[in-house]
Amino acid sequence: MPPSATDYRRLHDLHKDLKKTQDKLARGPRQIRARQARVEAAQDELTKLEQSLQEVRGLADRKNLDLKSKEAHMVELQCKLNTAASNREFDIIRGQIDADVAAKAVLEDEVLEALERVDRTLSEIAEKKEVIAQLEKETRDFANDFEQKSAVLREQEVSLSEQIKETEKIVPSEIREQYDRLVDAYGPEAMAQANGGVCNNCFTQLTPQSKVLLNSGKILFCGSCGRLLYQG
Ligand SMILES: [Zn+2]
């Protein structure tokens, strides 16, 4: 029995299925890379947070040292005040102590503020680490899942390729080369159904003669887009 339009539709469907399978195989690694990029971005953010923790800790330490030396200075002034030789000297030292009290209050606020920033940064770091752990887990799970799926997809790819090879025997030898070139170039779009006298790929109206040929179960190449046409 000569090949019918149904045989060509089956060949076309096999090409479409193969393309879908290959697309899925290609999409998995892309999706894994996208997830890995999110992990890396979060890791970069963590590094920045850790750097800023060092900075605010350094700032808190410096402010604390300033505060300690201010307090030591105040003790010193207090001793001098107790041994002041004159009222004038007493007033000068008193004035210095007042200035130190004001400066100490500012430093205390600054130390407190720096310590709050340390606490804030520490909790941001903890949150970021959780986010990274979560993203890493998702990436691992996705990769494992794809690993399993891809084994099945690869089997499908082999099986579909074999079925295509077998089914392609219906393509007449005189047009086989042209068909192969089309498949290489367009994959499943190498073939197109003709419905209602119109090519389904380029939507060009076929000539009456082409319609007659297609209706009689023949195949031909679309005069407009060159695809292999079969009756839909
Ligand atoms: Zn066409």
Describe the structure.
The chain is 78% helix and 6% strand. It is built from 4 helices and 4 strands. It is mainly alpha-helical and 232 residues long. It has 2 domains: 16-169, Orthogonal Bundle (Helix Hairpins), CATH 1.10.287.1490; 171-232, no CATH class. The mean pLDDT is 95. It has a 4-stranded mixed β-sheet. Zinc ion binds next to loops. Residues 192, 199, 201-202, 204, 222, 224-225, 227 line the site of zinc ion (ZN). Residues 1-31 are annotated as: Disordered. This is Putative zinc ribbon domain protein. Residues 7-26 have a biased composition (Basic and acidic residues).
- Tell me the CATH topology of the largest domain: Helix Hairpins
* Total E-strand runs: 4
Major sheet: arrangement of strands: 2-1-4-3
Cα-atom Rg, whole angstroms?
Answer: 40 Å
Percentage of residues in DSSP E strands: 5-15%
Task: Report how far the terminal alpha carbons are from each other.
Answer: 19 Å
Top CATH class of the largest domain: Mainly Alpha
What is the residue-averaged pLDDT? 95
Order of helices and strands: HHHEEHEE
Helix content: over 70%
Q: Largest sheet, described in full?
A: 4 strands, mixed
**Helix/strand/pairing class, anyone?**
mainly alpha
**Ions, cofactors and other bound molecules:** zinc ion
Morphology: rod-shaped
Q: Please count the helical segments.
A: 4
> How many structural domains can be distinguished in the coordinates?
2
User: Per CATH, which architecture of the largest domain?
Assistant: Orthogonal Bundle
The low-confidence runs, each spanning 5 or more residues with pLDDT under 50, are none
Region (Disordered): 1-31
Protein name: Putative zinc ribbon domain protein
Coiled coil: 32-59, 104-145
Biased composition (Basic and acidic residues): 7-26
